[in-house]
Amino acid sequence: MNPQLATRNSQLVTLLLPFGYLYGQVMRLRSRLYDIGLFKTRSLPCRVISIGNLTLGGTGKTPVTMWLADYIRSKGKKVTIVSRGYRAKNKRPVSIVSDGQRIILGPDEAGDEPFMMARNLPGVPLLIGKERFLVGMRAIEDFSPDVVLLDDGYQHLGLARDLNLLLLRTVKPFGNGRVFPAGTLREPLSALKRADAFILTYAGEEAGSVMEEQWLFLQERFPNKPVFVSYCKPVSFYLLNETFIRLGRTKDKGDNPPSIPFTKGGPTLTTPLKKGDTGGLGGLLGGKKVLAFCGIAHPESFRKTLIHLGIDLVDFIAYRDHYDYHRSDLEQIEEKAAGKGAEFIITTEKDAVKIDKLIGSRMPIPIGILRTEFTFEHKFTSFIDDRIGI
Q1: Are strands 47-53 and 367-376 parallel, antiparallel or unpaired?
Q2: Engineering a disulfide at 16: which of 34, 127, 182, 209 sits with its beta carbon 3.0 to 4.6 angstroms away?
Q3: pLDDT at 99
């Protein structure tokens, strides 16, 4: 069952309401059993920051985790990421995706998001495993981090944390307000109380008054807990198997091989995005027809980003979240692009890790990857400094 269907079909929601109620009650009971100590919570001998959400996908956990890893490392602290490894084929109790110097597992074995994080974070070890305490202890043993980042950890109550960050998408932060499978909530709204701080993600022009509405709701309900706002901005663009463009600067493939680390940074773009802020893409894509595709939780967000950048989209193809691409999918995309007269194909960095192995030495139509990062208010960095003692 695709949970997003439940938000669009009222009859389906009605049918699934009893199951959503039962699941919600189970999650409430589980949380209560941890609260009273019947279920054990274990601690790591270092600082732990959990990054999580309340809904099924699409709130920005991965980019926020990457931002925190970069920021903490920039402060001279050693940081390691611990993740479940969602949809990873590697089922060992503990697996090292990256030791900070080299990537050990590919996207199939590690999962697409852990692999993407490892590829973007040279110097930051990343480990996966279902039992996060065991994974964390292995991280302590092998890498001696000052801080462990617990990716997608809000529902993993078996590991104690010093800071519990809850990410909420600015637009429709609770979906239809129903618990899975009747909606996209992973647990009831009563779970909001576990957060130490809230981050409204993907704020921008389209959020408008909605952002203020969500901010006020959280402040009124949790007056002693800070609410931060984050924006998503494009920072770099590269062509698979050809060149890397850092939004206005081109490097030969030999200068920047498509392996760890990806080139990071690029010029700061206006936040929120303004239409026509191409950040160097105009010189490459100006006047050219583009077909875009993605397999993410909120494809419309990616489409709007491209439109705000002034890119001429002739078609947009949305696959389901975490879609496993096959060569036949790329052939169909290429055929559609050729039929629409597209001169470029663009997708997301998350999708790139899945299609990279399917790409031949040359593509009839170049495939470009738009890389994005989150930006935060200055007070968020001060908050992190205070909470983890930087």
Answers
A1: unpaired
A2: 182
A3: 96
At residue 112, the 3 state secondary structure works out as helix
CATH number of 233-373: 3.40.50
Alpha helices in the chain (DSSP H): 3-6, 10-35, 61-74, 107-110, 112-120, 132-143, 209-221, 281-285, 299-308, 327-339, 349-355, 378-388
Domain boundaries, the chain: 3-225, 233-373
For residue 358, what pLDDT is reported? 82
Mean pLDDT by 10 residues, the chain (390 residues): 52 89 96 96 98 92 96 96 91 95 92 92 96 98 98 97 96 91 95 97 72 88 95 83 41 35 31 40 74 94 88 95 92 94 94 83 80 90 89
Q: 260 Cβ partners below 8 Å, 6+ apart?
A: 98, 102, 103, 118, 119, 122
| Res 285: pLDDT | 73
In order of 12, 209, 240, 368, the CA distances from 348 in angstroms are 31, 28, 12, 8
- Over the Cα atoms of the chain, what is R_g? 21
Predicted local confidence at residue 250, as pLDDT = 33
Kindly report the CATH class assigned to 3-225.
alpha beta
- For residue 45, give the amino acid letter: P
Q: Tell me phi and psi for residue 334, to 5 degrees.
A: -65, -40
Q: How far apart are the first and last CA of the chain?
A: 44
Residue 118: both structure tokens together: 């490892």
What single-letter DSSP state applies at residue 268?
Answer: P
Buried b (16+ CB within 10 A) or exposed e, 187-210: bbeebbebbbbbbbbbbbebbeee
Strand 147-151 vs strand 312-318: parallel, antiparallel, or unpaired?
Answer: unpaired
Q: Could you tell me which of 288, 192, 217, 284 has the C-alpha nearest to residue 247?
A: 284
Alpha-carbon distance 31 to 157, whole Å?
8
**Helical pair 112-120 and 61-74, crossing angle rounded to 10 deg:** 30
pLDDT at 232: 87
Helix, strand, coil in percent for the chain, rounding step 5: 35, 25, 40
The token pair at 308 is 């705000």
CA distance 17 to 6: 10
Say yes or no: do domains 3-225 and 233-373 share a fold.
yes
